[in-house]
Amino acid sequence: MNKILKSYFYWTYPRGNVHYDVMVTLILLFIFVTPWMWDYGAKPTSAAGLTHPIQVVSDGAHGVIVSLDASDVRIPAGATDSEVKRALRRAIEPVTDDYMIVERWQTTMDGQGNLVWKIWAHR
Description:
Mean pLDDT: 81
Structural class: alpha+beta
Number of strands: 4
Oligomer: single chain
C-alpha cells in the first residue's frame, strides 16, 4: 500500500494505465467539485442588490470613477466621513476589487434628475 501511495505521489504510472486514469479523474473531480463545496472568496460578477446600473470609467491615471444611484447606497443621516467612505467602498465592491481605496466622492444629478454618487477610487 505504501508503494502505491508513493507511486501516486510521484506520478510514476505510464499514460493509459488504470492508475494514471484514476489520478486524472481525481484531479478533475477536485477542479469541478470543490468550488461547489468551499468558498474560495470569489466575488460575484453581478452587482447583487443594486437596482440601477453602475458606470465605471478610468480617471486617466491609475484609478476609476464609479457612478451609482444614491438609492443603492445606504448611508445613515449624520454619518461621519469614515462611515460614508466605508459604505461607498462596500457599494462599489461588486464592480471593483477589495483593494480599492475610496479617494473622494460627490453627489450629482443625472439626466433624469436622480441623485447619483460619483466616487473616485484607486488601488
